[in-house]
Amino acid sequence: MVDFWLRIFLVRHGHVAYFDKQNKPVNPKYASLSPQGVEQIRLLAEGLKDISFESIYSSTMPRSIQTAEILTQYQPSKEVIAVDSIREIKSGRLRDVPTDKAQTELKEAYLLQTNQLQHFLQGESWESFSSRVIEWFEQAVVSDSSRQNILISSHDVVNRIIINWMLDKHLADIYTQEQDYGCLNILDIHVKNNRIFRKRIKLQNFTIYNPFKTGLFDSAMDDVYNMYVRNNGFKT
């Protein structure tokens, strides 16, 4: 009988500058880590250097691949498997968000159930996004045949969806599942006869560069909303 525990090290990529010096949005598809983000992940790699990862995954987005490559610097095998299914959720264009809906669609975007939001910023639907992430994640988990450590370098909302899955909260609000830049989550999953038997969260949203979250008050969407407000010339 196949019976073992998998340990998932789920990481959000390091800090990224999503806006240029003129406060114009950078296409998130091509955004890479800032020097601050590189340092955040370098510190995490140092903390994880004594752990061997049998499988290493990232999304296909540059910031996620860059994060995985830094995290594998101490690993015997540095092969990173890029997976499109765990790329960040695709948004619409910020300029297409009506000003009278900015509070709901930007600042409160993660309150998808409370605000009955079908799409993220008028882009990808929450249903299709959640399906592609969780279908890949479940398949990756049950396809392993023995106990091992798996590293996944991913994104803010991807991690929130996976954590909600751990809590059996499909398409529930993900607002409370905070994911700071460069954070680490540790998830244990019990696999029995190629089925997921039990799940537990050992660590959530740990930032090795700032363990007590000093000054980390804003959520990711707070930053986007504040930039939107400045670009549109009105006050909250």
TrEMBL record:
One GO location term (cellular component): cytoplasm
A matching Pfam family: His_Phos_1
Residues reported in the UniProt entry to bind substrate: 63
InterPro entries in the cross-refs: His_Pase_superF_clade-1 (IPR013078), His_PPase_superfam (IPR029033), PGM_Phosphatase (IPR050275)
Molecular function, one GO term: phosphatase activity
CDD domains tied to this protein: HP_PGM_like (cd07067)
PANTHER family for this protein: BROAD-SPECIFICITY PHOSPHATASE YOR283W-RELATED, HISTIDINE PHOSPHATASE FAMILY PROTEIN-RELATED
Protein name as annotated: Histidine phosphatase family protein
Organism: Psychrobacter sanguinis
